[in-house]
Amino acid sequence: MNDHLCAVFLYCKSHQHQESNGVEYRQATPRHHSPTETSHSITTIAEKQHWQPVPAADMATTAAGLFGHQVDLNPGKNSRNKSKHCGHSLYKKNFHRPTFCHHCTDMLWGLFGQGYICEVCNFVTHERCLDNIITPCTTVAADRVQVFIPSKNITPENPVAHTWSEPGHYRKKFCNVCRRKLDDSLAFRCELCEYYAHATCLDFVVSNCVKCADYDANRNLEKMKFTHHWREGNLPANSRCALCKKSCVTSECLASMKCEWCWTTAHTGCYKSFSSECNLGPIRDLTIPPYAVSMPVPNATVRGDVTAKGQGGMPAKIPPRDTHVTPPPACKRTQEEPATRNTAMMMRTRFRRYQSISSIDSPTEVKGKEDGSEDGQLLRIYDGMTSVRRKSSHTVSVAKDASAVQVVEAAMRALHISDNPNLYYLAETSENESEGQERRIGDTEHAGQLSKQLGVKIPSLILRYQETKAKKGLIKVYPGLMKVPVEYVTVSITSYISVKEIIEMALHKFGLEDEDPDMFSLVELVIEHDIHEREMDRDECPWPQLIKARRNSLLQMRQTRYQLKRTDEKKPINAAQMFVGNLPINLSEFKYKYIIKHLLEEAGCPLFTSVGKVYVQYGAAIVAFEDHDAAITAYHVLKDATYEEKPVTLLFIPEIHIDCLRPEATPLLLFINVKSGGCQGIEVFDILSKMVNPYQVFNLCQGGPLPGLHAFSQLPEYRILICGGDGTVGWVLQCLDDVGQESVCSNPAIAILPLGTGNDLSRVLKWGGGYQQGDELFSFLQAIVDSEEVKLDRWTVIFETDQSKLIECDNKSNSSNSSSGNEDMPNMFVMNNYFSIGIDADLCLGFHMAREEKPEKFNSRLHNKGVYFRLGMRKLGRRTSCKELQKELRVEVDGKPIEIPSIEGMLILNISSWGGGADPWGVDSQDTTFKKCRHDDGLLELVGLTGVVHLGQIQSGLRTGIRLAQGANIRIWLNTDMPVQVDGEPWMQLAGQVVVCRSALQATMLKKSKLKIKRRNTEPALNSNDGQTSPRREQAKLVAMKSDEGGQV
Description:
Blueprint: H1 2-13, E1 42-44, E2 90-93, E3 115-118, E4 124-125, H2 138-141, E5 187-189, E6 196-198, E7 230-232, E8 257-259, E9 265-266, E10 293-294, H3 299-302, H4 341-359, H5 363-371, E11 376-382, H6 384-390, E12 393-399, H7 404-414, E13 424-428, H8 447-454, E14 460-465, E15 472-478, E16 489-494, H9 499-509, E17 520-527, E18 531-535, H10 542-552, H11 554-558, E19 560-566, E20 576-581, H12 589-602, E21 610-615, E22 620-625, H13 628-638, E23 642-643, E24 646-647, E25 649-653, E26 655-656, E27 668-672, H14 676-691, E28 697-699, H15 706-711, E29 719-724, H16 726-739, E30 749-754, H17 760-764, H18 777-785, E31 788-792, E32 795-801, H19 803-815, E33 828-831, E34 834-838, H20 839-853, H21 861-875, E35 889-893, E36 896-897, E37 905-909, E38 940-945, H22 948-956, E39 962-967, E40 970-974, E41 978-982, E42 985-989, E43 992-998, E44 1003-1007, H23 1019-1023, H24 1031-1047
Parallel strand pairs: 1-12, 11-14, 15-19, 27-28, 27-29, 29-30
Antiparallel strand pairs: 2-3, 3-4, 5-6, 7-8, 8-9, 10-26, 11-12, 13-14, 15-16, 17-18, 17-19, 20-22, 20-25, 21-22, 23-24, 31-44, 32-33, 32-43, 34-37, 34-41, 35-36, 35-40, 37-38, 38-39, 40-43, 41-42
Helix pairs in contact: 20-21
């Protein structure tokens, strides 16, 4: 034991250069950083020491002739160096702090030379794990984006760009590019696939995001196999490997894998043992697969982010990487990109906002760069003239006596270029784009001389490629979506080889000699942080363009690929459906069509093709565009438009294809109120969007429930998850009452994720009293699969005000020149939970008015309950307007008058929970007069409240309310104005009559089952057959059927 402790102590303190087992290795070089250790844009090179790559000495051997990729890193070829180690440039290193292997997640033990690290992507590994590495380096990862397995019937996919969030700070996460912790550094996060990247690493991200809408009418679903989409690192807490059942999550490094669809987690060395086919995991019955969804215009395309993504959208530019930021020039638009002025202005505005963030992100880093370092030399490296014009650079730190070759190596590593350094050189920056005007850095110059010669502390250099007199080269041509026996072929091109000839040669190498070359086109793809696609003319010659592209940007040239595309197999065009809302209500369908047409014609925008469903009671319409570019242009016109001084609400709606769904599937429609529970909905929205298809998740702040209900209107069966408070549940149920009767499934079952303050309905249905940050939402979705269906009685509350009170109210309004009259008074409500008169409604009204005055303060449940407590203390000991309430009202239940004792408030309950979990009705086994309070028995419970003290006693469980009556039809006469509330919505009601009667509409709710939920990543969840229904689900259905039979009245 003492020997082990001594070894650990020496391990943490070692700082020497040693040789181990007769193998010479290079010691880790002291990094000449600025004072901040968190800078991720600084790369170092070693001082003059011996270096022997592992395990072969020919790691820098080139496969000459392959244009743009001088080293052939194709994993299918038999090379012993980088091909064997997935493109990593590994060298042995002394680690002076606890370090963990990125392959097996075990700690690197030893005194010296404990493991190996990649010079480019910082991948760390044991020596014993060298032959098992399967994680590609960032220098070759882009070449492996296209999924293609010739031996299996799996359709290849094109690269998919990420949908980036706003720049922010993410703790306990790792960058998927440089594999370092994010912590305090500015970073971006993909909203769909949990891909993280520093702002300085965005140019090197791999465009392999999940494709959430991939419907193809020509696809044979019986032969199609849906594959896993693996993402490395940043796993959820308590993740276990589905193969070896051991923990695979680590907070020390970027390691282990997770499927973005089924949420299967596994070690990096274990996940290759799984079948490539994905069954969408334990919640597959709730998830809509991407091949069943079509979304011609994704919302991310028109959302206006700094990195908006999608086909046909104006690509926004990622901000430059240095602290001195200037907007980039406008990029060349393809045929699919609409040139709208609104889009360009939107992108410039978003870019300027990011520019202000970036300029103040790390002042200590800027200071460190300006001051330099005593032992090292800072250099600013540019990638061609394109980055010079954008002032987009990478800063590297080298030893002052570093040779020109070592500086070139450092610059290549900063740009993630893995190639022979002899093929590159450095030159001083120049405003002139002519390469002949630049001064090339001599081979005998060292880094320390550059600062003196240029007269600056941080010299600016451009990395260039050694131009030769070669008039030909090789390019890679990918098969696109065609199924051929190879991943790609190499085609020799010259200055005179046209696109037509390249197509002919590529078809010959693919074994498709019988195909007509005129039926194919060549597509140029630039796979950066965004994906730019351009169909090339048949007379074009790519060679001169590639030479020019290499001079402008080495990185962009290396990220360019070519692929074939059939011209005769075009996918059917699906119309883009746009939801247009917030228009005046109760107009004619022709009027809505005229309003939208008029707004588009004013801006000279292309018109829609047709008008679909019109929801007059909500002032909304669905319009369709056959031309996707016209849809995007119309979106940017309407999103800034107003009608009658109200902004127009816009949202593109996905189309769900029923024939692509499994027969036993019951997709889940998710509504999230992002403002509920102190804005907890924002966190829930992000998490749930990754657990299911993002096109199933709708933000209620963008058009309300109507867009989601319209998207699911043709499904024969589906379920709804409402994330919000009791008011949000009532909102969705009301909208479902209005438009659900026109849907195929008019009464879907509803589950609740409580985000509000009271959450009484969710408590009754066993979903809990409130979501807490860090709760396991995946288990929550599994509980929905196994939940049981129950019925919820709903009641209509009708208010009939006395005519004398209406005349008096009108006179007061006229005398005060008020625009609000009796038409604003509510006269009918649908009650789901409870209705109250008196002291309870008075407290609720005070809370409502306080929240309306300062809504920013009501951002937590604890604060909200504190406000209730203070309002109650103010009422204590004072004579309120609700004193002796029994004298001011008269009550009849089922036609019989009831005697009311001395009370200050009265509750009419439909459920057994009130005020955040209290039970005013209570459970009294000795009382045979009344039945137990149920939400499906067709009865209401009347409870009396004696005052504020009584309210507190009920809340604390010391007492229950005064049981007054139980019935199905209640009529109340109010002799004076009184505060009332219906499901948490309070107001002052004028004297009159109140009628509470049974509603014809009964809601179907989901009640959480008491059965134990299966643990994630267990064998039954992973290996269960898709076509079989689990016994647990059959049992849940049987319980629901019995509950329905017993609950009918």
